[in-house]
Amino acid sequence: MKKYTVAILGASGAVGNAMLSALEERNFPIKELRLLASERSAGKKMMFCGNEIEIQKAESNSFIGCDLVLGAADNSISKQFAHDIQKANALYIDNSSAFRLDDHVPLVVPEINGEDVLNHHGIIANPNCSTIIGCIAVYAIHKINPIQSMIVSTYQAVSGAGIKGMEEYQNQLKDVYEGHPSSPKAFDYQIVGNLIPQIGSFLDNGFTSEEMKMQNEGRKILHNPHLFVNCTCVRVPVLRSHSLSMTLHLKNTYDLDEIKKALSHAKGCQLVDDPQNKLYPMPLDTSNQDNVYVGRLRKDLCNDHSLTLWCCGDQIRKGAAVNAIQIAEKCIELQCL
Amino acid sequence: MKKYTVAILGASGAVGNAMLSALEERNFPIKELRLLASERSAGKKMMFCGNEIEIQKAESNSFIGCDLVLGAADNSISKQFAHDIQKANALYIDNSSAFRLDDHVPLVVPEINGEDVLNHHGIIANPNCSTIIGCIAVYAIHKINPIQSMIVSTYQAVSGAGIKGMEEYQNQLKDVYEGHPSSPKAFDYQIVGNLIPQIGSFLDNGFTSEEMKMQNEGRKILHNPHLFVNCTCVRVPVLRSHSLSMTLHLKNTYDLDEIKKALSHAKGCQLVDDPQNKLYPMPLDTSNQDNVYVGRLRKDLCNDHSLTLWCCGDQIRKGAAVNAIQIAEKCIELQCL
User: Are the CB atoms for A160 and A269 separated by under 8 Å?
Assistant: First the structure.
């Protein structure tokens, strides 16, 4: 079996860390692993399969000899190095939003549009975390009854703001318990005991950049260019699992049991829907796992083409790191890596 | 000015406490105040206008001589004493859900349907907390462009489970920060760092009792018997302000500026909608206040008859105690107390 030289760009962050764990857990065929980050993190060491690997400063020539680069850095870093990665002839699987809507860049959730990797020209984009979780939750429904539009309210964990968001949350728990004033840095406002109805920046239509991702990226992932998604994104005081309350408007009326059956067989998805026994997805139960959990399925009271559900998924793993590794695995399977 | 003999039934709870404060703050014309509760709380003392008042055990004859009883007890206690209160010829303003859907009982949010108090037969019901907050947020819109249906996702504070819910939350902040396991009692699951997508009990249609309140009570408050509300109620780790993400389907298309103008003049409502300056309602800013705060107004991307907004309001005050006192004030104004 072929083995690959892999680099993680942005290895010291929350997603980079999770990529490292996922590569090890999934026994990804690695010949050499390079950990790249900013100068600030260079020299630090991380464990991989029992060995210490030192983080190197990411530079133009860091990618020479790489087969695969997993991007866990922000848009500006991603754009800065994308050309160097392509010049080195490595496949770049990028978790930033820099290239997601580029026509020449596949945007992939392997359980949904895995074969799109075949169209890559050196870059494959990893979708937004809430978009991955939402798309996994609804794809089995979409296959049997096309989704026309969705109204979504998110409950997004602090891990979406990276390690600094998670640390701020943890420290604020103490501050708030002890009654001390808190000085937010990672977030614009205190997050413990609060909700912040803004993620990303505001656009002219009144939605945020984060809110528009579910429509724009969802269209591309689901191959559904006319999908409309009306989304409200809210940061909540939860560590690392995102939750979504979704109402789908479907092309046709439907049988709820048939929808549940489809979801119970859906890849990457786990149906937890036993309300009488108080079983439904919750962030605490779904953290640090790779499946998206779906429950609270019920017929919308307003419209017989509509369906309401609730889903949760780990933002760092399936929402980012694990999906990226799964894209790489799909490329190996389809022989385009 | 006439003064009244007032009793608070369930005085020792979170809502009872807030009723006591609101009576004092609003300078309600009181001749005598009786604090009633279960045997467990009897003998404790509470402060009112500088005087200590001892809580008495609520009994059948506790209401003799009362003009007004403010109910802050649960459904079973409310039903137990309703007849005694009526026999004493007192007006009963009840915060429980026991009588809300009774045809002979007005269900009132004074800013919306205050004149309904005129139809009382001894009982006036105070609506569900999320329903009050949601109805205040949308009423000014409904007046100029009738609401046909709403899709709502709630973010409900722990205060909805009373003092025991608030205490559990506060103690859990410490347990979670220190990494200790937590043993939930007031809630079915840990609430700090988690979300619980169940409030109330499940019905056959897959919705919870709490979720159906916004449709059933909303119809009665808004005098809109054909209103449909598809609601998802979620408990979140926030102390006392409920938040709602709402998408309204209106009878007609609309001008967003006109809607904003109507909301800026709406009674009980405060428009906080300046996204470029990161100003929108948040639980922390809206706690311990009587207005409902509305923001994030924008045109739904799926339908030009639809509008999306975000609102927050204090669950204990406007969501319960203050609304009850405002009902009593309306009865005085309309001379039916």
Answer: no
Of the candidates B237, B275, B303, which has its C-beta nearest A206's C-beta?
A: B275
The pTM assigned to this predicted structure is 0.97
Kindly report, residue by residue over A87-100, the tens digit of the pLDDT: 999 999 999 999 99
Would you kindly state where each structural domain of chain B is located, as residue ranges?
A: 4-127+320-333, 131-315
The reported pLDDT for the residue numbered B182 is 83
The alpha carbon of residue A302 is apart from the nearest alpha carbon of chain B, in Å, by 5
Give the tens place of pLDDT for each residue, B193-219.
999 999 999 999 999 999 999 999 999
Distance from CA of A228 to the nearest CA of B (A): 5
Q: Where are the beta strands (DSSP E) in chain A?
A: 4-9, 30-37, 45-48, 51-54, 56-57, 68-71, 91-94, 123-125, 147-155, 228-232, 241-250, 269-271, 292-299, 306-314
Cα separation of A234 and A236, whole Å? 6
CB A127 within 8 A of CB A215: no
Q: Does A192 touch chain B (CB under 8 A)?
A: yes
Q: Is it the case that residue B1 has pLDDT exceeding 90? A: no
The number of residues making up chain A comes to: 337
ipTM score of complex:
0.97
Equal CATH topology for B4-127+320-333 and B131-315: no
State how far residue B264 is from chain A, nearest Cα, in angstroms. 18
Rounded to the nearest 10 degrees, how much is the dihedral formed by the CA atoms of B186, B191, B196, B201?
0
- Tell me, yes or no, if B289 comes closer than 8 A to chain A by beta carbon: no
The answer to whether residue B277 neighbours chain A at the CB level (below 8 Å) is no
**Phi-psi map region of B10: left, alpha, beta (phi>0 left; psi -120 to 50 alpha):** left
Which among A147, A195, A303 is the top mutation candidate for probing chain B, defined by the most B β-carbons within 10 Å of its own β-carbon?
A: A195
CATH number of A4-127+320-333: 3.40.50.720
Domain A131-315 has what CATH class? alpha beta
Contacts of A207 in chain B (CB under 8 A): 298, 301
Check if the beta carbon of residue B230 is closer than 8 Å to that of residue B270. Answer: no
Catalytic residue list of A: 129, 242
What are the tens digits of pLDDT across the range A174-197? 999 999 888 999 999 999 999 999
pLDDT confidence band for B301 (50 / 70 / 90): confident
